[in-house]
Amino acid sequence: MLNLLYPISYLLALTGLVLWFYFKENRSISRKMSSLFLISFVVYLFSLAFTDSSVSFKLLILCRDLLILGVVTQIFNYVRQSPIIILIVAIALYGLIQFVGFNMLYSTFPEVNKSAALTNDNFELLLETKNDHLSKAYIRLINKYGLTVQPAFQMVSPEISELHNFLAVGIPDQSESKTKEIIQELKRLKGTLHLEYNEMIQLDIQESKEAIQTTQAIHVNDPMANQQWGWDAIQGDRLYQFLTTSGIKPRKRALIAIVDSGVDKNHEDLRAQFISSGAINDIDSSGHGTHCAGIAGAVSNNGIGIASLIPDATYVSITSIKVMNAKGIGSQQTTIQGIINAADIGADVISLSLGSLTSDKHQKAYEEAVKYANAKGAIVIAAAGNNDENAKGHSPANVTGVIAVSAIGANQKKAPFSNTVGDLNFGIAAPGVKILSTYPNPSYKELNGTSMATPMVAGLVGLLKAFRPELTTKEVYQILFESGKSLTDGKSTGRLIQAADALEMVID
Hints:
Elements: H1 2-22, H2 27-50, H3 55-78, H4 83-106, E1 125-129, H5 136-145, E2 148-151, E3 166-170, H6 179-188, E4 192-197, E5 200-202, E6 206-207, H7 230-233, H8 236-246, E7 254-260, H9 288-297, E8 316-322, E9 329-331, H10 332-344, E10 349-352, E11 356-357, H11 364-375, E12 379-383, E13 394-395, E14 403-408, E15 427-431, E16 435-439, E17 443-448, H12 450-467, H13 473-483, H14 490-493, E18 495-496, H15 499-507
Parallel strand pairs: 7-8, 7-10, 10-12, 12-14, 14-15, 15-18
Antiparallel strand pairs: 1-3, 1-4, 2-3, 5-9, 6-17, 11-13, 16-17
Helix pairs in contact: 1-2, 1-3, 1-4, 8-15, 9-12, 10-11, 12-15, 13-15
C-alpha cells in the first residue's frame, strides 16, 4: 500500500506546487493549489517515513525528490509568460512522468511481501545474478550483513537452463531482523535479475479413518486390490484387460522418479520394480515417499499386497530422489535440486507429492527447473495441495508446465481438503481419499491427500511414455483431458483420469 501511496502523493504534490506558482496572481485558484500541495506533501512524507528501508536511503530519496520539485517548479516559473511554451513543456513533462516517472517512483522501494514466509534456516533466499557474477557491490553487501552465499543448484547440463545463475543466500541470526532491508538492497543492485524466498515445505500426512470401500479387481491377483476403490474409478481392470488381449509391447522402460522423503527399496511390493539412484534415497523415515511409490508403481500380479497401473518392470521402473528429512521437512531449494537430479538420471516422469503456499508472486527457480526437466524429456506432475484453496497460490502446482493433480473421494466429487485446479493450465483429478498403499518396514496404510492422487497420475503417464517416449507435457495433458471423465465438480477438479481410454489413445 505504501509503495503505491508514495508515487501518487508525490506526483500530486508536484502538480499542486507547479499550479500554485503558475496561478499565484489568482488568489482563489492559488489557495486551492497550495492546499493540494501541502496535503499531498504531508502524505508523501508519511509514506516515505514508514516505507521499509534504511534511514540513509530514505534521506537520499528525499533529496532526489526535493531536487525534482525545485527544478520542475523553476522551469514552469521561467516559461509562465508564454502559454504555448507552457503547454509544450507541460505535455513533455507529464508525458515523461506518465511513462517513466511513475514507474521510477513506484520501483524506488521494491515491494517486499509482508506475509511471514517460512524459509530455510540456512539459506533464506534464492538470488539470480547476471552470469553468476558477484560485483564489488555484492561483496560489500555480503560483508555488511555477514551473508553466506553459495551456488544454489548443481546440474549436468547448465547450458539448457538459467539455474546455474542462482545463488543461495544465508542470513545470519544477528541480521535476521534486517531481512526486508537486505532484500531491498539486493533488489536494487544492478546485477540482480530475480530474488525469491527459499520457502520451507512440510509433508502433509493425513491418515484415513473412513470405512473401507471394497471393489472387484478381477484382472490382478494382489490380495489387497479389492480395498483399492480407485481401481474401478480409473479403469484399472479395463487397462489390464486391454494390455493382456492386445499383445502390444512398450517401446522403452520408462522411469518414474518419486521426489519425496525417500523410498523403502526393500519393500516386498516395490523391490522388483525399484531402481536405486543412491543409498541416501533408499531410506524413508517418514513413510510418505514409500506410500507414493506404491501408488505409482507397486508390483502387480505378484500375489502380494496391492496393485498399480504398472503390470511389471518391462513397462516402468520406480526410483527415488530424497528431498525431505525424517520429519518430512524440506525446502524450495532441495525440491528444485531434486527435480534437477531426477532429470539428470533420465527420469521420464517426475512425481512431486509436495508443495507449499507461496509468498512470492513469481517463483522463477521452479519454472527454470521444470524447463530443465522438460528439455531432458521428463514430465513434471505435482500435487495441488490440501488447503481447500485455489492451487494457483501453491507451488510447484502453479508453475507453468506442471500437471497439477486434485483429489476426489469415492463419491467422485472434490475431496473436502483438496485445492482446486480450475485456474491452472494443466489441472487433472485422481482418487485421493482413503488410498491404500505401501509403507516402510514393510507394511500398508491408508492415507488421504492430493499427495496420493499425484502418483496415480504419474503411474499412468509413465505407462503412456513407455509406449510413446516422445510425448510432451502438453500432449500428455491433452490425452488425459480428452480421455478423462467429466465430474460434477469438474470446474474445480479437472477431469478424472481414465487409464484404459488414455492408453488406447496413445496406441492408436
